[in-house]
Specification:
alpha+beta; six-stranded antiparallel sheet
């Protein structure tokens, strides 16, 4: 039941949200080679998806076009659910952007590779993670901004958590794989319309919003329309 889910999430996340969600946009100290994604805080326990989407969309647009309060107000007026992927996807479509869903991987292979989208294409992927276990009531949206290789050949994943203060989290590859794997490695990308997707081959972006999605025309995205985050 949705009410029960919300109560569980409130109990689990209340301490974090009370610190981070009411805050103004925080200045983040970014790791080396990370994407400089401007942080947008969630405003309630149910707006992590909106905040993550706003961060990814603003990076693509290279301006602060989206804020959580404005997005939430528009969705509520339309009778939509801010935590439902399908409703957020329709909201973005009305704004001329697309929310693409994939089952990702921690590698650099097109088209599901997290590193492919982050490093080769220059997009900040939204990953759905779960820190508590397999209960989908605790699924949570975060924005990955960097993957850093260390001298010992291990990797560190850096991501922004819209419901935390400070918002920057870093963990090793295996730990992130566990958190992400609990949600089926769900990955969301905010991209420009598909008509633009094949104008040019994949390349690193020289500035925010300069790239193209590069998805194959026959690619079947993951169906997440009814998923609640």
């Amino acid at each position: 039941m949705r009410t029960g889910r919300r109560l569980m999430v409130m109990m689990a996340c209340g301490a974090v949200l009370s610190a981070g969600c009411g805050a103004n946009r925080r200045v983040v100290s970014y790791p080396p080679d990370a994407l400089i994604v401007a942080y947008e805080p969630a405003t309630t326990y149910s707006t992590c998806l909106l905040a993550a989407t706003a961060m990814a969309a603003n990076y693509l647009e290279d301006r602060r076009r989206f804020t959580v309060p404005a997005m939430l107000a528009e969705l509520r007026r339309a009778g939509a659910d801010e935590s439902r992927v399908g409703d957020v996807r329709r909201y973005l479509a009305d704004k001329g952007l697309h929310l693409v869903a994939l089952s990702g991987r921690l590698d650099d292979k097109p088209e599901e590779g997290l590193s492919f989208w982050l490093n080769a294409k220059g997009y900040p992927p939204i990953c759905i993670i779960n820190r508590t276990g397999d209960n989908p009531a605790f699924n949570h949206a975060v924005v990955v901004i960097g993957i850093q290789s260390r001298a010992d050949s291990t990797e560190t994943i850096h991501y922004l958590d819209p419901s935390a203060d400070p918002p920057l989290f870093s963990c090793d590859r295996s730990a992130f794989e566990t958190l992400w794997g609990r949600c089926g490695r769900a990955m969301l990308l905010v991209v420009r319309p598909p008509a633009d997707a094949n104008d040019r081959p994949p390349r690193p972006m020289s500035r925010p919003g300069a790239g193209r999605a590069g998805l194959s025309p026959n690619r079947e995205p993951r169906d997440v329309s009814d998923e609640v985050i």
